[in-house]
Amino acid sequence: MGNELKAPLLQTKGSGVLKACFNATNAFLGIGLLTVPYALSSGGWLSLTLFLSVAAITFYTGILLKRCMDTDPSIKSYLDIADCAFGAKGRITVLINMNSECYLVAVGLLILESDNLHKLFPDFIIKIGTLVIGGRESFVIITGLVILPTMLLTDLSLLSYVSATGVFSCLLTVGSILSVGVFGGVGFHGRGALLNIDGLPTAVSLYIVCFAGHVVIPSVYSSMRDRCQFSKVLLYSFILTAITYMSMATVGYLMYGDIETQITLYLPTSEIGAKIAIYTTLLIPVTRYALTVTPVANTIEGGLSEEYRNWRPMRLLIRIGLLVSTLIIAYLFPYFENLVSIIGSIFVVLASFVLPCLCYMKIFGLYKNFSYKRIGFAGIIVFGVVAGVLGTYSSVTGFMRNV
Asked: Can you give the residue ranges of the Amino acid transporter transmembrane domain (predicted)?
């Protein structure tokens, strides 16, 4: 998602190292930034070792995708890699996984917006005759109305440029929250626990979301002028991403100790730094929602007959239908941290841990013979599956407690 939840990147030919680093970092920095303090609070300080493990593993699986692409110049996307390895079944699996993740990220963006608006205006409600709609629910509806004009655009190139401010927005958010701790009277007094074993599944699933950008790695690689520099680009991007996430996690945990939801909901709205952080966060759903659901809309359109595929009223109807359906889910199930955890446990685990290893082994024929590489890939897959299963169970039980 998030890529963010993650917005699709522009396919620019001949990108240099700096631009490729920017694009890759933009793919990984997302709404996981707001939940990583909660992840650290759930797992304790020692869980940061698992964060670094996730970062190292996902960096390696990103390199595996690059090596798969090197086997065939016609491979341009993650879908092509899966198709090369497993044929149509592999392509369909990745397509379903990618679209499901995008759809749920879109729901998360709506929840994120409504929660932070409610934080700023806690007394706001909508009254229509005898009907009274609560503050958070009201802001879900208002957010949908604000986003609606962007859904009427079928050419989203302008929004792509707006969304590319994601790296700056994330860094600004971290700096603003840090300023609240330093100058806002909050301080850094939350010592926190060394280890919370019960919360480790939730922590790991949220850490996994922080590195949910593998779907766009092939796009970044394909767009580079000098592809020999890609490993360096990916390393720099992962280092910057890891430092940013760890900074946010540490600052948030030291400021508030036990955290149970996104960090912005704990900030004192009277402080200028808090307002900057919250208003910056409010820009993310407006600029990224349409881009996030575009792959889902394109997939639906691709399944239509030629008569309706390029018919503009049908394309608009599909996009409005996606907006309405995500609004209903966000209205009825407003549990941001549980949703992000589920995204990490199921969809990111598959895209960032399991599929890169399986595709690499299939393309290079490693599944046929015993080797140490095969053992390593099996370890990555097992780690991902176990983290996914435990994280999903923890998220679902947490969701049931909230309902």
From this structure: 14-395
